[in-house]
Design a protein that fits this description.
The structure is a single chain. By secondary structure, this protein is an alpha+beta fold. It has 16 helices and 25 strands. The strands form six sheets. Strands 17, 18, 20, 21, 23, 24 and 25 form a seven-stranded mixed beta sheet that branches. It has a four-stranded antiparallel beta sheet with strand order 4-1-8-7.
C-alpha cells in the first residue's frame, strides 16, 4: 500500500467515499480533468481510466457507446441478385482525415439490411465528434473473406451519410435516420436523389447503473501505535479473472479509533462485476511514511454484505498465515455493515435522452486592454481574410459543441466593460444592441452580434464579472422556478485580470445552488492567477463575503495560450468537467431524468 498516498494529508482522504451529494470536498479533492485527455486520444477503452471514473460513479465525462446500424431502400448494384451491403464507420479527425472505427458484417442479398455486428465509439461530451458512415456492396468473390481485410476501393459504394455523435445521443430514442448520398459529392452539394436511408442507434455500454451505498464499522481493532490508538482506513478491492485484486475504493482515515465507523462508500455494480463477485476488505493503520500496517482482512461479495446487514452480525477479520503456517490467523476484531442501500445512478446520457437541455450563454470582454479593434495587434481585430480571432474561435469551438444540446438554439449573449453610444460604461449589455432582449439566433447570430457590437461601442473598463454572472444566474433561477429540466452554461471570454474578485466570488457562491456552470477562456498575455482561484480545482471552496461556502465547483478556467499550440483543444479542456458538474448538481438536488 506504500504507493497509494502521495502525502499525509492527501493520504487521509477517501477515494470514492460517497456520491457527490454526500461530500463536496472529496469530489473536488479527486479531480480528474487531466486524466481524460489521454483517453481522448486513444481509440479504445482505457481500463485504468474506467476504474478511476467508474469508481466515483461518473460515467458522463466519457461514455462507451455501441452503435447499431440498419438501412432501407438501398440501391441495387447486382445484376442477378440484390446488393450485399456492409457498413463502415469513421470518425473525422481535427485535420479532416477519417479514422476507421469499425465494420459490420456483410448481409447477403438485401436492400434493407439490419447488421448484427456493432461498432464501438467513445463518446466525449467535450469534443465535437463527426461520424461518417459508408455503405458498400461487397463483391461475391470476397464473401468468405474477413471484412477487416477487404479493400474498400474494390467494392462498389452504395452511399455515405454523416452526423455528429451528439445528434444521435440527444435523441430520446437514441436513434437517428440519415439520407445516404454519393460519397464523392463535395461538401455543400445537393444530392440529386437519396440512395436510401441509414438508421444509427446508440447504446451506452453500462451493464448496470445500480449503485450500492454501504456504511461500514469495525470493532476491537488491534492497536499499532505506541503513544495513541490506531488510525484505521479500509481499502476495498475486486478480484479480476486473472486472480489479481484491483483497488476500487478507499475510505477516509479515522484518527485514534479502534472502533471506527466510516462515511458512506458507494460501489457501482459494473465496477465490482456483480453482486456475487468477491470483494476484499482490508483494514490498515495509516502511517505517514506510506508503510501502512494491515490490521485485518475479509473477503465478501455484495450479497454477503447485504446478509450481514440484515442479520446485524459481524464478520471476524483474519490475517494471512505467517511463514510456515497453513491457516490464516482469525482475529477478534470484526467488520459490520451498518447500512446497505441500492439505488439507480443515472448517467449524463440518461438526462439528455429524457429531454434535459443544456442552454448556452456567452459574455464577451470589451475592455480597452484588448487594444483598438481596428489594429491587427488587437485581440478584437477582425481579419479580412476571415481567420477568426481568439474571441471568435472560443465562441465557435464551445458553441459548436453545446448548440446540439439546445433545442431552440436561441442564446443569451452579452458584452461587458464597454461604453455603448452616448451612454455610461456598462458591465452587462446585450450584444445584439437591444434594450429589451438578450437572445440571438444560433452561433452565427452570436458572431454577427459580436462584430456589430465592435462597431457600436467604445472599449472601456474595468473588468467586472459580477454583473454577467448575476444575469446568467437570474435566467437559471427563473427556469428552475418554472420546473424546467434545463442546465445553463455561461462562457466568459476575457483578456484581463478581474477587478471585482470578491463580488465575483459572491455571485459564484450564490450561483452554485443553481443549474449553472461557468466556463472562462482567458485570451492574451495577462496574468490569470486570480482566475485560477475561481476554478476550485485544488479543492478549496469559494467563500462569499457573508461566509457562505460554494455548494459545488461550477467554474472551469483555461488560458487560451496554454492550449492553443498543444494537442488539447480549448473546448476539450473547458468542457471536460461539465458532465461531472451537471451530475453533481442533479444528484445533490435529487433530480431524476423526467
Amino acid at each position: 500500500m506504500g504507493n497509494c498516498f502521495s502525502d499525509t494529508s492527501g493520504g487521509r482522504m477517501a477515494v470514492n467515499e460517497a456520491t457527490p451529494s454526500d461530500d463536496y470536498s472529496n469530489h473536488n479533492h479527486q479531480k480528474h480533468h487531466h486524466h481524460h485527455q489521454s483517453q481522448a486520444a486513444s481509440d479504445g477503452p482505457n481500463d485504468a481510466l474506467d476504474l478511476f471514473l467508474g469508481s466515483r460513479g461518473y460515467y458522463g465525462l466519457y461514455s462507451h457507446i455501441q452503435l447499431s446500424l440498419s438501412a432501407s431502400n438501398l440501391s441495387d448494384r447486382d445484376v442477378l441478385s440484390k446488393s450485399d451491403p456492409m457498413a463502415v464507420v469513421y470518425i473525422k479527425r481535427g485535420d479532416g482525415t477519417l479514422e476507421e472505427l469499425g465494420r459490420t458484417e456483410v448481409v447477403l442479398n438485401s436492400l434493407n439490411p439490419t447488421w448484427i455486428v456493432k461498432v464501438n465509439v467513445t463518446y466525449h461530451f467535450e469534443v465535437m465528434q463527426s461520424l461518417v458512415f459508408r455503405v458498400y456492396d461487397v463483391d461475391t468473390q470476397f464473401h468468405n473473406v474477413d471484412v477487416k481485410t477487404l479493400k474498400l476501393d474494390e467494392q462498389q459504394s452504395l452511399g455515405e451519410a454523416s452526423c455528429a455523435l451528439s445528434e444521435i445521443v440527444t435523441k430520446s430514442s437514441r436513434s437517428f435516420t440519415l439520407d445516404l448520398v454519393r460519397h464523392d459529392l463535395s461538401a455543400g452539394s445537393k444530392p440529386l436523389h437519396s440512395l436510401g436511408k441509414l438508421t444509427v442507434h446508440a447504446e451506452e455500454w453500462i451493464s448496470s447503473k445500480i449503485t450500492t451505498e454501504l456504511v461500514v464499522k469495525c470493532t476491537e481493532l488491534e492497536n499499532k501505535d505506541v503513544f495513541s490508538k490506531s488510525d484505521p482506513f479500509l481499502v476495498i478491492s475486486k478480484i479480476v479473472e486473472s486472480g489479481i485484486s484491483i483497488p476500487v475504493c478507499k475510505t477516509e482515515v479515522i484518527k485514534n479509533d479502534l472502533n471506527p465507523t466510516w462515511k458512506p462508500v458507494s460501489l457501482n455494480i459494473q465496477q465490482v462485476g456483480s453482486k456475487d463477485s468477491p470483494l476484499i476488505f482490508e483494514c490498515f493503520n495509516f502511517n505517514g511514511n506510506g508503510k501502512h500496517d494491515l490490521l485485518g482482512k475479509v473477503q465478501k461479495s455484495l450479497l454477503d454484505l447485504e446478509r450481514l446487514n440484515s442479520s446485524g452480525e459481524g464478520e471476524n477479520f483474519f490475517l494471512p498465515p505467517p511463514v510456515g503456517h497453513d491457516k490464516p490467523k482469525v482475529l477478534k476484531s470484526k467488520i459490520y455493515v451498518e447500512r446497505f442501500t441500492e439505488s439507480v445512478q443515472y448517467t449524463f446520457l440518461d438526462y439528455l435522452a429524457a429531454g434535459c437541455e443544456l442552454n448556452f450563454m456567452v459574455a464577451v470582454d470589451f475592455t480597452a486592454s484588448n487594444g483598438n479593434p481596428r489594429l491587427p495587434d488587437s485581440l478584437h481585430y477582425i481579419d479580412p481574410s476571415g481567420r477568426p480571432n481568439a474571441y471568435q474561435k472560443a465562441i465557435l469551438d464551445v458553441g459548436g459543441v453545446l448548440q446540439f444540446y439546445d433545442s431552440d438554439k436561441r442564446f443569451p449573449a452579452w458584452g461587458f466593460g464597454a461604453r455603448p453610444i452616448d451612454g455610461p460604461v456598462s458591465h452587462c449589455f446585450n450584444l445584439n444592441g437591444s434594450s429589451n432582449y438578450c437572445e440571438v439566433d444560433g452561433i452565427q447570430g452570436i458572431m454577427t452580434a459580436y462584430m456589430s457590437a465592435l462597431m457600436n461601442v467604445s472599449l472601456a473598463g474595468p473588468t467586472l464579472f459580477g454583473h454577467v454572472i448575476t444575469s446568467a444566474a437570474t435566467i437559471a433561477s427563473q427556469s428552475l422556478a418554472e420546473g424546467r429540466q434545463k442546465y445553463f452554461v455561461l462562457l466568459i471570454i476575457t483578456d484581463g485580470v478581474i477587478t471585482d474578485l470578491q463580488e465575483t466570488k459572491d455571485a459564484i457562491v450564490k450561483a452554485s445552488h443553481l443549474p449553472l456552470s461557468i466556463l472562462i477562456v482567458g485570451v492574451g498575455g495577462a496574468d490569470f492567477k486570480e482566475m485560477e482561484v475561481l476554478d476550485a480545482d485544488k479543492g478549496d471552496r469559494l467563500k462569499s463575503t457573508t461566509g457562505h461556502l460554494s455548494l459545488r465547483d461550477i467554474v472551469q478556467f483555461v488560458p487560451f495560450r496554454d492550449v492553443q499550440n498543444g494537442e488539447i483543444s480549448v473546448v476539450q479542456s473547458l468542457l471536460a468537467e461539465l458532465p461531472t458538474q451537471f451530475l453533481t448538481y442533479m444528484r445533490s438536488k435529487g433530480i431524476e431524468p423526467q
